Amino acid sequence: MATQVGHIKRINHFKGINVDGFQFQSPDVKAYVLTHFHSDHTVGLSSAFGDKGGTTNTKKKKLIYCSKITGSLIKEITKVKEEYIVPCELHAETEIEGTSYTVTFFDANHCPGAAMAYFFDKVTKRTVLHTGDFRADEDKVQKNEKLMETLKRNERLDELYLDTTYCNPNYDFPRQKVALECMQKIVLEALREEPKTLFTCSAYSVGKEKAFKAIGDAVRTFFEDNNMNNNNNTKIAVMLKKKQMLTLTEWYDDNCFTCFQGEPDDPTGSKAMEQHVRVISHGGKDPHVSMNAILLAEKHRFKRVVAFSPSGWAWKWQMRKTYEETKCLICEPWIGNDGLTKLYHVPYSEHSSYGELLGFVERIRPRKITPTVNAETEKDRDKLLKRFEQWVDLSANKGKLHHYFSKSETNNNATTTNNNSDDTIICLSSDDEGDVEIIDPSIRAALPNVKIDVRTQQRELERLASSKNEKKRSKREEEEKKEKEHIIIDLSKESNSPMKGINHHSNSREVLEPFPLGCVCVVRNGEFKQFKNRKHVEQRLRELGAEVVNRKSSRVTHIMCAHGSMQATELLRLEKMNTTSANAPSAVAAVAAAAATASKTSKKGKKKSEDDEEEDEEEEEEYPDDAITVTESWLMRHVRAMRNGTAREHTSEEIKHFQERQRKRLKLAQEEKKKKKKQKKQKEKSEEEKCTTVE
């Protein structure tokens, strides 16, 4: 799942470009880029885009650049207005309106419509490739001629935003072709044992099309070879929503697929029920229960059920060991109901395997890599980046000696004609990007054969390092002075002012408000610096009177994150941005607005089905409208104020106001429940009336 962090969603050195980060809508965004139509990449995108979140404090439209298929999906499914969508052709360079940037899309080999985005700045000549989610197959991606030509044309790739879903040596699973062949073998063996076998395959709303298409092809070839059926029952049966998705992604074919509903030649869905392949998922803890229910209900049609669950996470150590020994993929089934039902976990994935990731990075050799999955903390990112160190071009990184010595080598080759074997160049590796590496002066003086340009470079590095240290010291001194001047804690009990315990200068920070009433808080995982761990944070919150919950819901008022986390840096970025413009809202308001756009959807237009209403409720629970993001330092200030006796208490008016708000919320919630019940009753009555009229 893509990491939901604002820093990763914004492209470095491409100011105002946001990729798959609709929950991080802010006034400084100039354009949005959507790589594909998966829920973890469309968080915050709704039919209200452009009305509120898309054009915040700006006259110009904020457009969404995407592939044609993805554009049709967000138009028809998410109901985004067509005027905000810019569908782009693959391999065609598209100018981003209002900027000096261009974007070019390439096939990501992930799901229908998924594309990699290649950015180019006409002014700075900077280049960035964002893979989105992709499967770096050697033939389809690594040897993509159009992509490689584009990369070679600009000579370098400054930064690569990489899908690191399976960036682990344990997940070096086989290619898609091998997994699909394995599934087809299982299908043919099962049909030889029992021709009356039903095959089911789980799939996303968009994705896994190759998997269930391979199953359908195997069933068709079996019946054709044995002359047992004239292709009447060899189609793939899908639900109505899946048919809509397949149609929009240009996958639906009447000769290959059929639907349980809405087919002109099969209005009741009886023909679809006779097909040997169905795209359904067996939910619950035990999928054999639902498979057995199918057998009991359809005894006259099928005698066995074989289910497939295609996923890269199926690549376990036993399967890996047998594949390494035999070079043959063998999937052992989970058997139930005395062998009548079987479930196969197949290592078919639409994300890159570990080996494919290494091969892709080695081929394109970027100057910098930014992981986009499993990269929430700095430690997580460092672990991922260490795997690609040997294939990253560090010549442009001024924090590494590779930058200086790569230049010296080119200069020496051009100027010097006599290359002495005694010449020595010293290069030291560095783990810290910000530190400058220096050869000790005594060592340098003892090496008479070191080239002159290398010596001058070392002197320059020494000068830069000393100036850098001086700047750091001056900054620390200034910060210490500001802290001493601006905040003075007064613990005297003689102070009768309502802002008890804190005195301020004219340039001081705002007074610490009392701890919020009715605080319901979710604590995010992270490396806490002022507290021991997450449990310690939750304990302190409860001491202050807050209610701590495990997941987001409409009741949540505060979201607690670690001080050094990406959520905290996003909050600080918005705060800095808003202080520059007088008319801009506060950081808390901006975060709340972003959360609101993520959850709110326009309720105008067509009536929704019960399933759609349930999905909307889940979205509202997952992304609350008025939840405020706070850091651990906010909590620590309240804890210290409580212990020192300097915490400001709520006035009676504030308490009354809070109680009134709570009553209003309860009334509104009760009214909404009553409305929903009435709507359900009306629907049931209308359906009964329709049935009676039909009869």
Please describe what this structure looks like.
- It is a single chain.
- The protein has 695 residues and is an alpha/beta fold.
- The protein is globular.
- The protein is built from 21 helices and 23 strands.
- Residues 53-58, 413-438, 484-509 and 582-624 have low confidence and may be disordered.
- A seven-stranded mixed β-sheet has the order 12-11-13-10-14-16-15, with helices on both faces. A six-stranded mixed β-sheet has the order 5-6-7-8-9-17.
- It is 40% helix and 13% strand.
Quick summary:
With 695 residues, the chain is of the alpha/beta class.
Q: What is the SS-derived class?
A: alpha/beta
* Major beta sheet summary: 7 strands, mixed
Terminal-residue CA separation? 49 Å
Strand content: 5-15%
Lateral arrangement of strands in the main beta sheet: 12-11-13-10-14-16-15
> With helices defined by DSSP (H or I, 4 residues minimum), what is the helix count?
21
- Write down the overall mean pLDDT: 79
Radius of gyration, in Å, reads 31 Å
- Give the CA-based shape: globular
Residue ranges: pLDDT <50 for 5 or more in a row? 53-58, 413-438, 484-509, 582-624
